[in-house]
Amino acid sequence: MSISQNLLKIKSSLPSTVTLVAVSKTKPIPDLMKAYDAGQRIFGENKIQEMTEKWEAMPKDIEWHMIGHVQTNKVKFMAPFVSLIHGVDSLKLLEEINKQAQKNNRIIDCLLQMYIAEEETKFGLDKKELNKILHFVQNDKEGMKNIRIVGLMGMATFTEKQTQIKKEFTHLKSIFDKLQPLKTKNCQLNTISMGMSGDYQLAIESGSTMVRIGSSIFGGR
């Protein structure tokens, strides 16, 4: 099946409440344009340099999502255009995003990445760190005007065990639900990003509102 057929098949299976991020990392621009021509407008990249090159070359109505681990010294390169940063896993990173957004006269949307997997290789915050960041953002009257925390992101353990994946997704959803009453100018949680090509159906059942799908659209690497 072609990229456009793959994309339309997946889109038709998603509830209207779920946003599809087409994970286009390592894929050439002609492949992305096939998805674009089929109606896709949100693309996810995990390397800032590659995302910047694609942003420069492609139509300007695309939303670019940074889905990889972000180094603070690279934030300035994507600050002029990035729509959503999925993997905010420290206050230091959030402060840098705010600083670079300010320089570009923008407000950048961010997801806080929670550590939900039983794997050492994954990044993310624990509950204590999460509360610390949220407390800081809410009580910082002057500083954090150029970021908006719009939700949470989490990656499940890479395993065949559906029960474990389900447990981790459910755990993230319960954290998200507890934070729902939080409503300040720069912190309104309406997005829960969990689920990738292998487990997105399970993620949606568990309450995901945003899925990141790459290989099922563009084929394997």
Descriptive account of the structure:
With 221 residues, this protein is α/β, with parallel strands linked by helices. The protein is built from nine helices and nine strands. The chain has helices at 3-13, 29-37, 48-57, 75-78, 91-103, 127-139, 162-179, 200-205, 215-218, and strands at 19-23, 42-45, 63-66, 84-88, 108-114, 147-154, 183-184, 187-196, 210-213. Strands 1-2-3-4-5-6-8-9 form an eight-stranded parallel β-barrel, surrounded by four helices. It starts with a helix and ends with a helix.
In short:
The chain is an alpha/beta fold and 221 residues long.
The separation of the N and C termini measures 16 Å
Largest sheet: 8 strands, parallel, barrel
Question: Helical region count?
Answer: 9
Total beta strands: 9
The percent of residues in helical segments reads: 25-40%
What's the rounded overall pLDDT mean? 94
Shape: globular
Q: What is the percentage of strand-forming residues? A: 15-25%
- What oligomeric state best describes the polypeptide chains here? single chain
Radius of gyration of CA atoms, rounded to a whole number: 17 Å
Q: Note the run of SSEs as H and E.
A: HEHEHEHEHEHEHEEHEH
Strand order, largest beta sheet: 1-2-3-4-5-6-8-9
**Parts with pLDDT < 50 across at least 5 consecutive residues:** none
* SSE class: alpha/beta
